[in-house]
Amino acid sequence: MAETRNIVILGASYAGSGAAHYFLKHVYPHLPKSSKVTYRVILVDPSAKWYLRHASPRAIASEELMPTKHVFLNTVDGFKQYGDAFQFIQGSATSWNPETRIVTISTGHGKEEQLPYHALVLATGTKTTSPLFSLQGTPHTDIQAALRTVRDQVSRAKKIVIAGGGPAGVETAGELGEMLNGSAGWFSSWPSHITTEITLITNSSKLLPKLRESIAKQAETYLNRVGVEVRYNTKVSSATGPSNGKTTVLLHDGEELIADLYIPATGLVPMSEYVPSRLLDGNGYVKNNPETLRVDEAGPMVYAVGDIGTYSRNGIMDIMDGVPVVNSNLKRDLLAAHENVDAKPTGPDRKWKATAAETQLVPVGQSKGVGAVFGWRVPSIFVWLIKGRTFMISESAVKDSLMGKNWEKEKAWDGK
Ligand SMILES: Cc1cc2nc3c(=O)[nH]c(=O)nc-3n(C[C@H](O)[C@H](O)[C@H](O)COP(=O)(O)OP(=O)(O)OC[C@H]3O[C@@H](n4cnc5c(N)ncnc54)[C@H](O)[C@@H]3O)c2cc1C
Protein backbone atom coordinates (compact mmCIF):
# COMPACT_ATOMS: atom_id res chain seq x y z
CA MET A 1 0.00 0.00 0.00
CA ALA A 2 1.22 3.51 -0.80
CA GLU A 3 2.43 5.71 2.04
CA THR A 4 0.28 8.85 2.30
CA ARG A 5 2.19 11.98 3.27
CA ASN A 6 -0.04 14.57 4.92
CA ILE A 7 0.46 18.26 4.20
CA VAL A 8 -1.52 19.58 7.16
CA ILE A 9 -2.68 23.21 7.10
CA LEU A 10 -4.17 24.58 10.32
CA GLY A 11 -6.62 27.44 9.77
CA ALA A 12 -8.75 27.93 6.66
CA SER A 13 -9.07 31.70 6.41
CA TYR A 14 -7.19 34.08 4.07
CA ALA A 15 -3.78 32.48 4.77
CA GLY A 16 -4.72 28.81 5.20
CA SER A 17 -7.15 28.66 2.27
CA GLY A 18 -4.68 30.61 0.15
CA ALA A 19 -1.82 28.27 1.05
CA ALA A 20 -3.96 25.21 0.25
CA HIS A 21 -5.14 26.53 -3.13
CA TYR A 22 -1.63 27.58 -4.11
CA PHE A 23 -0.22 24.20 -3.11
CA LEU A 24 -2.87 22.24 -5.01
CA LYS A 25 -2.52 24.39 -8.12
CA HIS A 26 1.24 24.85 -8.28
CA VAL A 27 3.06 22.34 -6.05
CA TYR A 28 0.99 19.18 -5.98
CA PRO A 29 1.07 18.68 -9.80
CA HIS A 30 4.91 18.72 -9.70
CA LEU A 31 5.34 16.08 -7.00
CA PRO A 32 6.54 12.69 -8.28
CA LYS A 33 3.72 10.19 -8.82
CA SER A 34 4.59 6.72 -7.60
CA SER A 35 2.88 3.65 -6.26
CA LYS A 36 4.94 3.98 -3.06
CA VAL A 37 4.19 7.57 -1.96
CA THR A 38 1.16 9.82 -2.36
CA TYR A 39 0.52 13.30 -0.97
CA ARG A 40 -2.67 14.92 0.26
CA VAL A 41 -3.61 18.26 1.76
CA ILE A 42 -5.57 18.25 5.00
CA LEU A 43 -7.07 21.63 5.88
CA VAL A 44 -8.29 21.97 9.47
CA ASP A 45 -10.58 24.63 10.92
CA PRO A 46 -13.29 24.61 13.59
CA SER A 47 -15.34 26.80 11.29
CA ALA A 48 -16.83 25.30 8.12
CA LYS A 49 -17.10 28.83 6.73
CA TRP A 50 -14.46 31.42 6.03
CA TYR A 51 -15.45 34.85 7.41
CA LEU A 52 -14.35 37.68 5.11
CA ARG A 53 -13.59 39.84 8.08
CA HIS A 54 -12.28 42.79 6.10
CA ALA A 55 -15.96 43.48 5.33
CA SER A 56 -17.12 43.13 8.95
CA PRO A 57 -17.58 46.89 9.57
CA ARG A 58 -20.35 47.00 6.96
CA ALA A 59 -21.72 43.60 8.01
CA ILE A 60 -22.10 44.97 11.56
CA ALA A 61 -24.10 47.94 10.28
CA SER A 62 -26.68 46.11 8.20
CA GLU A 63 -27.66 42.82 6.59
CA GLU A 64 -29.05 44.79 3.66
CA LEU A 65 -25.77 46.59 2.96
CA MET A 66 -23.62 43.47 3.46
CA PRO A 67 -25.61 40.23 3.28
CA THR A 68 -24.41 37.39 5.51
CA LYS A 69 -24.19 35.00 2.57
CA HIS A 70 -21.55 37.26 0.99
CA VAL A 71 -19.22 37.35 3.98
CA PHE A 72 -19.31 33.67 4.96
CA LEU A 73 -17.93 31.34 2.29
CA ASN A 74 -18.39 27.58 2.44
CA THR A 75 -14.76 26.43 2.59
CA VAL A 76 -15.22 22.92 1.20
CA ASP A 77 -17.03 24.15 -1.94
CA GLY A 78 -13.84 25.83 -3.11
CA PHE A 79 -11.79 22.63 -2.85
CA LYS A 80 -14.07 20.09 -4.54
CA GLN A 81 -12.16 20.82 -7.76
CA TYR A 82 -9.10 18.96 -6.39
CA GLY A 83 -10.80 15.60 -5.73
CA ASP A 84 -8.98 13.14 -3.44
CA ALA A 85 -5.89 15.33 -3.12
CA PHE A 86 -7.79 17.39 -0.56
CA GLN A 87 -9.53 16.71 2.74
CA PHE A 88 -11.20 19.11 5.19
CA ILE A 89 -11.45 18.37 8.89
CA GLN A 90 -13.82 20.54 10.88
CA GLY A 91 -11.98 20.69 14.15
CA SER A 92 -9.58 22.66 16.26
CA ALA A 93 -5.89 21.97 16.91
CA THR A 94 -5.63 21.61 20.68
CA SER A 95 -2.02 20.48 20.98
CA TRP A 96 0.99 19.85 18.81
CA ASN A 97 4.05 17.70 19.39
CA PRO A 98 6.88 18.74 17.03
CA GLU A 99 8.97 15.74 18.16
CA THR A 100 6.44 13.04 17.20
CA ARG A 101 5.10 15.26 14.38
CA ILE A 102 1.50 14.84 15.48
CA VAL A 103 -1.22 17.46 15.93
CA THR A 104 -4.20 16.68 18.15
CA ILE A 105 -7.46 17.85 16.65
CA SER A 106 -10.63 18.22 18.67
CA THR A 107 -13.60 17.53 16.43
CA GLY A 108 -16.24 18.35 19.03
CA HIS A 109 -18.35 16.42 21.53
CA GLY A 110 -15.17 15.31 23.32
CA LYS A 111 -13.78 13.54 20.24
CA GLU A 112 -10.11 13.86 19.34
CA GLU A 113 -8.03 12.83 16.36
CA GLN A 114 -4.25 12.34 16.28
CA LEU A 115 -3.12 13.75 12.96
CA PRO A 116 0.42 12.91 11.80
CA TYR A 117 2.03 15.30 9.34
CA HIS A 118 4.82 15.19 6.81
CA ALA A 119 4.65 18.97 6.40
CA LEU A 120 2.76 21.47 8.56
CA VAL A 121 1.57 24.99 7.76
CA LEU A 122 0.35 27.09 10.69
CA ALA A 123 -2.26 29.66 9.62
CA THR A 124 -4.45 30.06 12.69
CA GLY A 125 -4.35 33.86 12.64
CA THR A 126 -5.55 36.30 15.26
CA LYS A 127 -8.82 36.97 17.01
CA THR A 128 -10.26 40.30 18.04
CA THR A 129 -11.71 41.20 21.44
CA SER A 130 -15.14 41.46 19.87
CA PRO A 131 -16.51 38.40 18.05
CA LEU A 132 -17.90 40.77 15.41
CA PHE A 133 -14.56 41.27 13.68
CA SER A 134 -13.09 37.76 13.46
CA LEU A 135 -13.60 34.06 13.91
CA GLN A 136 -12.67 33.13 17.46
CA GLY A 137 -11.40 29.59 16.90
CA THR A 138 -15.01 28.37 17.12
CA PRO A 139 -17.71 27.58 14.49
CA HIS A 140 -18.90 30.43 12.26
CA THR A 141 -22.42 30.20 13.73
CA ASP A 142 -21.11 32.01 16.84
CA ILE A 143 -20.15 35.01 14.72
CA GLN A 144 -23.41 34.96 12.79
CA ALA A 145 -25.32 35.03 16.09
CA ALA A 146 -23.20 37.98 17.31
CA LEU A 147 -23.90 39.85 14.05
CA ARG A 148 -27.66 39.32 14.38
CA THR A 149 -27.59 40.63 17.96
CA VAL A 150 -25.54 43.71 17.14
CA ARG A 151 -27.70 44.67 14.15
CA ASP A 152 -30.74 44.53 16.38
CA GLN A 153 -28.97 46.75 18.93
CA VAL A 154 -27.84 49.16 16.19
CA SER A 155 -31.41 49.63 14.96
CA ARG A 156 -32.54 50.83 18.41
CA ALA A 157 -29.40 52.59 19.68
CA LYS A 158 -29.40 56.29 20.54
CA LYS A 159 -25.82 56.27 21.84
CA ILE A 160 -22.99 54.09 20.51
CA VAL A 161 -19.44 54.00 21.86
CA ILE A 162 -16.67 52.39 19.81
CA ALA A 163 -13.16 51.89 21.25
CA GLY A 164 -10.14 51.70 18.95
CA GLY A 165 -8.63 54.16 16.50
CA GLY A 166 -7.36 51.58 14.01
CA PRO A 167 -9.08 50.69 10.73
CA ALA A 168 -11.67 48.41 12.40
CA GLY A 169 -12.84 51.21 14.72
CA VAL A 170 -12.74 53.97 12.09
CA GLU A 171 -14.51 51.88 9.43
CA THR A 172 -17.20 50.67 11.84
CA ALA A 173 -17.85 54.19 13.13
CA GLY A 174 -18.05 55.49 9.55
CA GLU A 175 -20.48 52.77 8.45
CA LEU A 176 -22.76 53.24 11.45
CA GLY A 177 -22.54 57.04 11.23
CA GLU A 178 -23.55 57.27 7.59
CA MET A 179 -26.30 54.66 7.93
CA LEU A 180 -27.85 56.19 11.06
CA ASN A 181 -27.12 59.92 10.69
CA GLY A 182 -26.64 60.47 6.97
CA SER A 183 -23.97 62.85 5.78
CA ALA A 184 -23.28 66.59 6.13
CA GLY A 185 -24.28 68.88 3.26
CA TRP A 186 -21.74 70.61 0.99
CA PHE A 187 -20.95 73.51 3.31
CA SER A 188 -21.31 71.74 6.63
CA SER A 189 -18.96 69.65 8.68
CA TRP A 190 -21.66 67.84 10.64
CA PRO A 191 -25.01 66.25 9.64
CA SER A 192 -28.03 68.50 10.12
CA HIS A 193 -29.82 65.91 12.24
CA ILE A 194 -28.19 63.40 14.59
CA THR A 195 -30.29 60.27 15.12
CA THR A 196 -27.62 58.39 17.04
CA GLU A 197 -24.78 59.88 19.05
CA ILE A 198 -21.61 57.98 18.10
CA THR A 199 -18.29 58.39 19.93
CA LEU A 200 -15.04 56.84 18.72
CA ILE A 201 -12.44 56.58 21.48
CA THR A 202 -8.72 56.12 20.97
CA ASN A 203 -5.95 56.05 23.55
CA SER A 204 -3.60 57.53 20.95
CA SER A 205 -3.14 61.14 19.87
CA LYS A 206 -4.08 60.20 16.28
CA LEU A 207 -6.23 57.75 14.36
CA LEU A 208 -4.95 55.03 11.99
CA PRO A 209 -1.42 54.25 13.29
CA LYS A 210 -0.16 52.97 9.91
CA LEU A 211 -1.00 56.22 8.09
CA ARG A 212 0.55 59.67 8.38
CA GLU A 213 -0.97 62.45 10.50
CA SER A 214 -2.56 64.43 7.65
CA ILE A 215 -4.38 61.35 6.32
CA ALA A 216 -5.55 60.44 9.81
CA LYS A 217 -6.90 63.99 10.26
CA GLN A 218 -8.82 63.63 7.00
CA ALA A 219 -10.42 60.48 8.42
CA GLU A 220 -11.60 62.48 11.42
CA THR A 221 -13.13 65.12 9.12
CA TYR A 222 -15.04 62.41 7.25
CA LEU A 223 -16.15 60.83 10.53
CA ASN A 224 -17.48 64.18 11.74
CA ARG A 225 -19.43 64.52 8.50
CA VAL A 226 -21.42 61.40 9.43
CA GLY A 227 -21.93 62.49 13.02
CA VAL A 228 -19.08 60.64 14.75
CA GLU A 229 -17.17 62.46 17.50
CA VAL A 230 -13.55 61.36 18.01
CA ARG A 231 -11.97 61.44 21.48
CA TYR A 232 -8.18 61.19 21.58
CA ASN A 233 -5.83 60.18 24.40
CA THR A 234 -8.68 58.42 26.14
CA LYS A 235 -8.50 54.89 27.48
CA VAL A 236 -11.38 52.59 28.29
CA SER A 237 -10.74 51.09 31.74
CA SER A 238 -13.73 48.75 31.76
CA ALA A 239 -17.10 48.11 30.18
CA THR A 240 -19.93 46.66 32.24
CA GLY A 241 -23.12 45.28 30.81
CA PRO A 242 -25.24 45.28 28.91
CA SER A 243 -27.71 45.44 31.75
CA ASN A 244 -31.25 46.63 30.96
CA GLY A 245 -29.96 47.40 27.47
CA LYS A 246 -27.19 49.75 28.68
CA THR A 247 -23.42 49.32 28.89
CA THR A 248 -21.39 51.47 31.27
CA VAL A 249 -18.05 52.39 29.72
CA LEU A 250 -15.59 53.61 32.36
CA LEU A 251 -12.79 55.85 31.07
CA HIS A 252 -9.31 56.18 32.57
CA ASP A 253 -10.14 59.54 34.17
CA GLY A 254 -13.21 58.16 35.96
CA GLU A 255 -15.78 59.50 33.49
CA GLU A 256 -18.63 57.10 32.70
CA LEU A 257 -20.33 56.85 29.33
CA ILE A 258 -23.69 55.07 29.25
CA ALA A 259 -24.16 53.45 25.84
CA ASP A 260 -26.95 51.49 24.17
CA LEU A 261 -24.19 49.72 22.29
CA TYR A 262 -20.50 49.40 23.03
CA ILE A 263 -18.15 47.93 20.41
CA PRO A 264 -14.53 47.24 21.37
CA ALA A 265 -12.46 47.39 18.19
CA THR A 266 -9.10 47.04 19.90
CA GLY A 267 -6.50 44.37 20.34
CA LEU A 268 -5.52 41.29 18.39
CA VAL A 269 -4.76 38.00 20.11
CA PRO A 270 -2.87 35.28 18.19
CA MET A 271 -4.75 31.95 18.15
CA SER A 272 -1.73 29.89 19.14
CA GLU A 273 -2.86 28.10 22.32
CA TYR A 274 -1.95 24.71 20.80
CA VAL A 275 1.63 25.74 20.00
CA PRO A 276 4.45 24.80 22.45
CA SER A 277 5.48 27.99 24.25
CA ARG A 278 9.15 27.69 23.20
CA LEU A 279 8.00 28.38 19.61
CA LEU A 280 6.17 31.60 20.52
CA ASP A 281 7.40 35.16 20.99
CA GLY A 282 6.42 37.19 24.06
CA ASN A 283 3.10 38.19 22.49
CA GLY A 284 2.05 34.66 21.54
CA TYR A 285 2.96 34.81 17.84
CA VAL A 286 4.74 31.86 16.19
CA LYS A 287 8.42 32.67 15.65
CA ASN A 288 9.11 32.07 11.99
CA ASN A 289 12.17 32.81 9.92
CA PRO A 290 11.45 36.26 8.43
CA GLU A 291 12.91 35.23 5.07
CA THR A 292 11.94 31.59 4.47
CA LEU A 293 8.83 31.64 6.71
CA ARG A 294 9.87 28.25 8.11
CA VAL A 295 9.43 27.70 11.84
CA ASP A 296 13.09 26.76 12.22
CA GLU A 297 12.86 25.52 15.80
CA ALA A 298 9.98 23.11 15.06
CA GLY A 299 11.87 20.59 12.93
CA PRO A 300 11.78 20.17 9.17
CA MET A 301 8.90 21.23 6.94
CA VAL A 302 7.02 23.46 9.36
CA TYR A 303 5.95 26.93 8.18
CA ALA A 304 3.79 29.82 9.42
CA VAL A 305 1.86 32.19 7.19
CA GLY A 306 -0.58 35.02 7.82
CA ASP A 307 -1.26 36.86 11.08
CA ILE A 308 0.00 33.99 13.28
CA GLY A 309 3.64 34.36 12.14
CA THR A 310 6.06 36.93 13.54
CA TYR A 311 6.97 37.96 9.98
CA SER A 312 3.47 39.38 9.41
CA ARG A 313 2.28 42.92 10.06
CA ASN A 314 -1.24 41.51 10.36
CA GLY A 315 -2.54 42.38 6.93
CA ILE A 316 -3.67 40.62 3.77
CA MET A 317 -0.71 41.95 1.75
CA ASP A 318 1.67 39.90 3.88
CA ILE A 319 -0.46 36.86 3.10
CA MET A 320 -0.48 37.56 -0.65
CA ASP A 321 3.31 37.80 -0.54
CA GLY A 322 3.81 35.04 2.05
CA VAL A 323 1.77 32.21 0.49
CA PRO A 324 4.04 31.87 -2.59
CA VAL A 325 7.17 31.94 -0.39
CA VAL A 326 5.89 29.17 1.89
CA ASN A 327 4.82 27.08 -1.09
CA SER A 328 8.07 27.50 -3.04
CA ASN A 329 10.11 26.44 0.00
CA LEU A 330 7.68 23.63 0.79
CA LYS A 331 8.00 22.38 -2.80
CA ARG A 332 11.81 22.43 -2.55
CA ASP A 333 11.68 20.59 0.79
CA LEU A 334 9.19 17.97 -0.45
CA LEU A 335 11.07 17.22 -3.65
CA ALA A 336 14.37 16.87 -1.80
CA ALA A 337 12.83 14.53 0.79
CA HIS A 338 10.78 12.44 -1.63
CA GLU A 339 13.20 9.47 -1.74
CA ASN A 340 15.06 10.11 1.50
CA VAL A 341 12.99 11.88 4.17
CA ASP A 342 16.08 13.30 5.85
CA ALA A 343 17.43 14.94 2.68
CA LYS A 344 17.47 18.74 2.45
CA PRO A 345 17.20 20.86 -0.69
CA THR A 346 20.27 22.47 -2.20
CA GLY A 347 20.43 26.00 -3.63
CA PRO A 348 18.83 29.17 -2.29
CA ASP A 349 15.43 29.33 -0.61
CA ARG A 350 12.74 31.71 -1.73
CA LYS A 351 12.83 34.78 0.51
CA TRP A 352 9.98 36.94 1.76
CA LYS A 353 10.42 40.70 1.46
CA ALA A 354 8.13 43.18 3.15
CA THR A 355 6.37 45.58 0.77
CA ALA A 356 6.69 49.28 1.50
CA ALA A 357 4.98 50.54 4.61
CA GLU A 358 2.05 52.96 4.48
CA THR A 359 -0.25 50.89 2.34
CA GLN A 360 -3.76 50.93 3.72
CA LEU A 361 -7.21 51.84 2.41
CA VAL A 362 -9.81 52.84 4.98
CA PRO A 363 -13.38 53.52 3.85
CA VAL A 364 -15.25 56.00 6.04
CA GLY A 365 -18.91 55.34 5.33
CA GLN A 366 -20.31 54.33 1.99
CA SER A 367 -18.96 57.21 -0.05
CA LYS A 368 -15.65 58.44 1.40
CA GLY A 369 -12.32 57.03 2.48
CA VAL A 370 -8.67 57.72 3.18
CA GLY A 371 -5.48 55.84 2.48
CA ALA A 372 -2.09 55.43 0.90
CA VAL A 373 -0.57 52.88 -1.45
CA PHE A 374 3.18 52.19 -1.30
CA GLY A 375 3.68 55.51 0.47
CA TRP A 376 1.53 57.53 -1.98
CA ARG A 377 -1.51 59.26 -0.56
CA VAL A 378 -4.61 58.35 -2.57
CA PRO A 379 -7.81 60.40 -3.01
CA SER A 380 -11.10 59.49 -1.39
CA ILE A 381 -12.62 58.43 -4.72
CA PHE A 382 -9.82 55.87 -5.18
CA VAL A 383 -10.52 54.34 -1.74
CA TRP A 384 -14.21 54.25 -2.57
CA LEU A 385 -13.65 52.61 -5.96
CA ILE A 386 -11.24 49.95 -4.72
CA LYS A 387 -12.67 49.17 -1.31
CA GLY A 388 -15.50 51.33 0.04
CA ARG A 389 -17.99 50.71 -2.80
CA THR A 390 -18.39 46.98 -2.10
CA PHE A 391 -15.66 46.14 0.42
CA MET A 392 -14.36 43.99 -2.44
CA ILE A 393 -17.35 41.70 -1.94
CA SER A 394 -18.99 41.55 -5.35
CA GLU A 395 -20.51 38.26 -6.45
CA SER A 396 -17.59 37.52 -8.77
CA ALA A 397 -14.92 38.58 -6.25
CA VAL A 398 -16.42 36.28 -3.63
CA LYS A 399 -16.52 33.37 -6.08
CA ASP A 400 -12.93 34.01 -7.10
CA SER A 401 -11.78 33.98 -3.45
CA LEU A 402 -13.68 30.79 -2.74
CA MET A 403 -12.35 28.94 -5.78
CA GLY A 404 -8.79 30.20 -5.27
CA LYS A 405 -8.84 32.12 -8.57
CA ASN A 406 -6.61 34.77 -6.97
CA TRP A 407 -3.93 32.09 -6.91
CA GLU A 408 -4.45 30.83 -10.46
CA LYS A 409 -1.13 32.27 -11.60
CA GLU A 410 2.04 31.03 -9.99
CA LYS A 411 4.15 33.92 -8.65
CA ALA A 412 7.50 33.54 -10.35
CA TRP A 413 10.81 33.84 -8.50
CA ASP A 414 14.48 33.61 -9.44
CA GLY A 415 15.05 30.13 -8.06
CA LYS A 416 12.20 28.48 -9.97
C1 LIG B 1 -12.27 44.74 10.78
C2 LIG B 1 -11.04 44.32 10.07
C3 LIG B 1 -10.78 44.81 8.81
C4 LIG B 1 -9.63 44.43 8.14
N1 LIG B 1 -9.41 44.94 6.91
C5 LIG B 1 -8.27 44.64 6.28
C6 LIG B 1 -7.98 45.20 4.99
O1 LIG B 1 -8.77 45.95 4.44
N2 LIG B 1 -6.79 44.90 4.42
C7 LIG B 1 -5.88 44.07 5.01
O2 LIG B 1 -4.81 43.83 4.46
N3 LIG B 1 -6.14 43.50 6.21
C8 LIG B 1 -7.30 43.77 6.85
N4 LIG B 1 -7.54 43.21 8.07
C9 LIG B 1 -6.61 42.22 8.61
C10 LIG B 1 -6.92 40.85 7.99
O3 LIG B 1 -8.27 40.55 8.19
C11 LIG B 1 -6.03 39.78 8.61
O4 LIG B 1 -4.69 40.10 8.27
C12 LIG B 1 -6.40 38.40 8.08
O5 LIG B 1 -7.70 38.03 8.49
C13 LIG B 1 -5.41 37.35 8.58
O6 LIG B 1 -5.75 36.14 7.98
P1 LIG B 1 -5.26 34.76 8.58
O7 LIG B 1 -5.73 33.71 7.64
O8 LIG B 1 -3.82 34.83 8.87
O9 LIG B 1 -5.99 34.60 9.98
P2 LIG B 1 -7.51 34.73 10.39
O10 LIG B 1 -8.30 35.47 9.38
O11 LIG B 1 -7.48 35.23 11.79
O12 LIG B 1 -8.03 33.23 10.39
C14 LIG B 1 -7.53 32.26 11.25
C15 LIG B 1 -8.27 30.97 10.99
O13 LIG B 1 -7.73 29.95 11.84
C16 LIG B 1 -8.78 29.22 12.45
N5 LIG B 1 -8.28 28.70 13.72
C17 LIG B 1 -8.07 29.37 14.87
N6 LIG B 1 -7.59 28.55 15.82
C18 LIG B 1 -7.49 27.32 15.24
C19 LIG B 1 -7.05 26.05 15.70
N7 LIG B 1 -6.61 25.88 16.96
N8 LIG B 1 -7.07 24.99 14.85
C20 LIG B 1 -7.50 25.14 13.56
N9 LIG B 1 -7.93 26.35 13.07
C21 LIG B 1 -7.92 27.41 13.91
C22 LIG B 1 -9.89 30.24 12.60
O14 LIG B 1 -11.16 29.60 12.73
C23 LIG B 1 -9.75 31.04 11.31
O15 LIG B 1 -10.48 30.45 10.26
C24 LIG B 1 -8.71 43.55 8.75
C25 LIG B 1 -8.98 43.04 10.02
C26 LIG B 1 -10.13 43.40 10.68
C27 LIG B 1 -10.42 42.83 12.04
From TrEMBL:
Q: Do you know which Pfam families this protein is assigned to?
A: Pyr_redox_2
Mind listing the UniProt keywords for this protein, alphabetically?
Answer: FAD, Flavoprotein, Oxidoreductase
- Mind naming one GO cellular-component term on file for this protein? cytoplasm
> Could you confirm whether the keyword Ribonucleoprotein appears in this record?
no
Q: Recall the GO molecular function terms of this protein's record.
A: electron-transferring-flavoprotein dehydrogenase activity; flavin adenine dinucleotide binding
Q: Where is the FAD/NAD(P)-binding domain?
A: 6-313
Question: Which positions are tagged coiled coil?
Answer: none
Question: Is Flavoprotein one of the keywords?
Answer: yes
Family assignment from sequence similarity? Belongs to the FAD-dependent oxidoreductase family.
Q: What is this protein called?
A: FAD/NAD(P)-binding domain-containing protein
Could you tell me which species this protein originates from? Zasmidium cellare ATCC 36951
